[in-house]
Design brief:
Length: 500
């Protein structure tokens, strides 16, 4: 039996029965990484020795009668989450060589439960990007078609899960960076409510938007991972102190009695026809499962993109000011003085996209422009949140496309930032509101014909995944998980695997 395709909940059953060990699961994952990651390039670094050591310890704990929800499960961690003793670079040259002396709270909780940390996954630099092409190290490839991007910024985590290189992974979502790569790679990705999961040890991009969350093969695994990492953390001032429900209890196969809203603003001109058709069919499936489908409006959606690209870069410009080459990471030594050293360190250490956002943010916060740009953006953000509140007063959750297109070819948008930013049009608003959402596979579209004949084409003729997202109100993760699970159970899209 191949072990690498197992879901987390399937693997836990095998572990509990004693039919496999954590060491065997981990060896299978490491072998899979060794075999195919040269093509996918999902991992920035793999800690094989540490993973096997953790796996053996998990087996010892289980032999003593322990049975925690993640005991012995091999997972991957996005490289913006601190890992004690394991290099954390945020996909940036400026943090090359930085080894944190502590774990992020989400990582610490997984370790306490006995999870096995395989390594760190690739990401757009400081999570700024939608394709994982902005990594300071290399580009990650979509397992369904190696000529395509995996999405971003959690593209490494999504690709690793899709390719069977880990049983689950953690990512972060600032403007769609869990849900968009989940859609592009045909996996499940959940963005929790802001404050539901600790941000302690998550290297900040935009502090009022960042949120860590799970990527997995199915909704049940997402629920298990969320259960493991959710909860109050006094070390995070934005963490909310409220009970964590049993997310698995919310997983039911029917949607009887539920009202699901479909926003008219989320079916826009220029959407890829296959995406629109797949999402509409998914909505029809939800209706057949007993849900009442109602049309709703999120009227300020058109302002989400400019609002996000004022607020997020402004917060990034403040957060990234700490990278001066003095305290940690990359540092230029051939400089005339400390000011020259700081300028050269940032010039050489930051990539083009990060520099672009720092400049945008610094400009928006500068004297004479703060009121006109940043303050006005915050006021419109309030209107966007109010849209969600009014819509969710009419329905239990919202159904919408995750992305307007399927994954696009590597290199096709890297020189056109606006086109890249437009790819997040359906995900940004939820982060501005601070609410929760999940993306699940809902179909496939043919890979573009112009890649026929490529070496990658013959091995990736299955097409490209499409995602639908379920959006919910604050701390309504049980609701969005219920809708996603019922839809998943009624379809087989999540069962397809890339033919690597």
């Amino acid at each position: 039996m191949d072990l690498y395709p197992l879901t987390i909940h399937e693997a836990l059953e095998h572990l509990r029965r004693g039919s496999v060990s954590s060491e065997q699961l981990t060896e299978a994952a490491l072998h899979r990484i060794e075999t195919i990651d040269g093509q996918v390039r999902a991992f920035l670094r793999v800690d094989a020795e540490g993973a096997l050591r953790q796996a053996r310890e998990a087996d010892r704990r289980r032999a003593k009668g322990e049975d925690t929800p993640m005991l012995g499960i091999p997972l991957a961690i996005k490289d913006v989450l601190c890992t004690k003793g394991l290099e954390t670079t945020c996909g940036s040259r400026i943090l090359q060589g930085f080894v944190p002396p502590y774990d992020a709270t989400v990582v610490a909780r997984l370790k306490q439960m006995g999870a096995v940390i395989l390594g760190k996954t690739n990401t757009d630099e400081f999570a700024m990007g939608s394709s994982t092409e902005n990594s300071g190290y290399f580009v990650t490839h979509n397992p369904w078609n190696l000529a395509m991007v995996p999405g971003g910024s959690s593209g490494g985590s999504a690709a690793a899960v899709a390719a069977g290189e880990c049983l689950g992974a953690l990512g972060t979502d600032t403007g769609g960076s869990i849900r968009q790569p989940a859609a592009f790679c045909g996996v499940v990705g959940l963005k929790p409510t802001y404050g539901r999961v600790s941000r302690y040890g998550l290297v900040a991009f935009a502090s009022s938007l960042d949120q860590a969350g799970p990527l997995a093969q199915d909704v049940t695994d997402c629920a298990l991972l969320l259960q493991a990492i959710a909860g109050y953390d006094p070390r995070d001032s934005t963490s909310v102190n409220r009970p964590v429900p049993d997310y698995q209890e919310a997983l039911r196969p029917r949607l009887d009695g539920m009202r699901l809203g479909v926003p008219r603003e989320y079916f826009v001109e220029g959407m890829q026809p296959e995406v629109a058709d797949a999402v509409r069919e998914a909505i029809a499936v939800c209706r057949r499962l007993g849900a009442e489908i109602v049309e709703i409006s999120l009227p300020h959606t058109e302002y989400a993109l400019p609002v996000y690209y004022l607020i997020a870069p402004a917060e990034a410009s403040a957060n990234l000011a700490r990278y001066d080459g003095v305290k940690y990471g990359f540092s230029v030594t051939d400089a005339e003085d400390i000011f020259d050293a700081s300028a050269k360190t940032r010039e050489q250490g930051f990539g083009a996209e990060v520099k672009r956002r720092i400049m945008l943010g610094t400009y928006a916060l500068s004297a004479g422009y703060y009121d006109a740009y940043y303050l006005k953006a915050q006021k419109v953000r309030t209107l966007i949140k109010r849209d969600f509140d009014q819509a969710l007063a009419q329905c239990d959750a919202i159904l919408a496309p995750t992305t307007p297109t399927t994954a696009f070819p590597i290199g096709s948008k890297v020189d056109d930032p606006l086109q890249m930013y437009l790819g997040d049009i359906f995900t940004l608003s939820l982060n501005l509101a601070g609410y929760c959402g999940i993306s699940v596979p809902c179909g496939f579209a043919p890979s573009p014909d112009r890649h026929e004949g490529d070496e990658a084409w013959g091995r990736h003729a299955e097409g490209l995944p499409i995602g639908i997202q379920v959006l919910g109100g604050p701390f309504q993760e049980p609701t969005v998980l219920r809708v996603a699970y019922a839809y998943e159970r009624a379809t087989e899209w999540h069962c397809r695997k890339p033919p690597l």
